[in-house]
User: What shape does this take?
Amino acid sequence: MTAEPGTELETPLRGALFGSCSIVDVSGAQIAVNLSGEQAGKVLQKSSPYDFHPRNFPPGRCVQTNFAKAAALVAANADASFDVVFRRSYADYLRGWIADAGREYGFANVP
Assistant: This one.
């Protein structure tokens, strides 16, 4: 029997932090998209007030910010792509927003 997704992190955290905090899996309410390509940072800049320039947002950094009027967590990856995590209920809205913001850069929606 395989473990539920996330339990490889959740179980050790519960043991190590018992009594100190609450560990809650909220992944079912979230969706993640990956923005990649030479202009991905510019698409992020059009969508958020945060400064995503590489000197300010190097690989390994993440920030929670407003993204197209929705709260999102954005993480910079070593391959120069970005992971954007937001509430599942905003998926259609943000997909349209990203498509519009990326149109001038040749946005291509890859399933």
